[in-house]
Amino acid sequence: MSAMILDGRATAALIKDELGKIVATMKTKPGLGTVLVGDDPGSHSYVGGKHKDCAEVGINSIRIDLPATASVRDVLAAIHDLNSSKECTGYIVQLPVPKGINPNLLLESIDPAKDADGLHPLNLGKLVLGERAPLPCTPRGILELLSRYNLNTSGKEVVVMGRGLTVGRPLGLLLSQKGSDATVTITHTKTIDVISHTKRADIIVAAIGSAHFLRAEMIKPGAVVLDVGITRTDAGLLGDVHPDVAGIASAIAPMPGGVGPMTRAMLLTNVVEMAQSK
């Protein structure tokens, strides 16, 4: 068996084309803001990609970069500016932030109506209740990628590896809601016998940040696997999924080129939807 590749780059390009056509009809262009603190090269690359995406779609962008020496007050001031800005439809605070700054304090300071990442406590609470709110971009991107490839989650056993705020926990909620209707298991560092869970899964989302952790012997033949984890090594960036999984799985979203581009596309989607709702 040779796994079908779930091409996030090609899918994201289609979504951006769709969004560009919508934005072209809008009298007032949406504006995406970013707040980036520190010198993390991955964060700088990722934020740069987001602003490039904005230019391609026709969304205005506002970029605030602060040094690693920035105080909490400095970051909160930037957040306040974007909360007040009429040009900013929605924005994100790029995570991680330098040590000594509480990311939860920053997220809680974002205007929930401008929370383009869907990580404000109010919006996460609405996700729990099943109410309309901006959705976390990576979980939304995962569901959209599956949908675009006609991979149904209804009634499926899904294992989400990792319980992080940006992927694991909100993804579990989204998958178990009506409309997705999956049976979800979330594994983590205290899970006993992880293989007993992954072996029965129809769909596995690996988001633990442990290079090549998920191997072929851990999945059942024909499973769909999405690689979300990223680990920096001397050999470069590695995902959570070992290459040998491709010989067993029916479909794989690789890292890179799978979920990552979808996350960025969903950020744009959130901002356009925010503009449409005004």
Automatic annotation (TrEMBL):
Please name the Gene3D superfamilies in this protein's record: Leucine Dehydrogenase, chain A, domain 1, NAD(P)-binding Rossmann-like Domain
Q: Which GO terms describe its biological process?
A: tetrahydrofolate interconversion
Q: In which pathway does it act?
A: One-carbon metabolism; tetrahydrofolate interconversion
UniProt xrefs under CDD domains: NAD_bind_m-THF_DH_Cyclohyd (cd01080)
Q: Which UniProt keywords apply?
A: Hydrolase, Multifunctional enzyme, NADP, One-carbon metabolism, Oxidoreductase
Residue ranges occupied by any Tetrahydrofolate dehydrogenase/cyclohydrolase NAD(P)-binding domain in the UniProt entry: 136-277
Q: Give all residue intervals belonging to the Tetrahydrofolate dehydrogenase/cyclohydrolase catalytic domain.
A: 6-117
One molecular function GO term is:
methylenetetrahydrofolate dehydrogenase (NADP+) activity
Task: Report if keyword Oxidoreductase is assigned.
Answer: yes
State one Pfam family annotation.
THF_DHG_CYH_C
For this UniProt entry, what's an example GO CC term? Answer: cytosol
Which protein, by its recorded name, is this? Answer: Unannotated protein
What the entry lists under PANTHER family is as follows: C-1-TETRAHYDROFOLATE SYNTHASE, CYTOPLASMIC (PTHR48099:SF5), C-1-TETRAHYDROFOLATE SYNTHASE, CYTOPLASMIC-RELATED (PTHR48099)
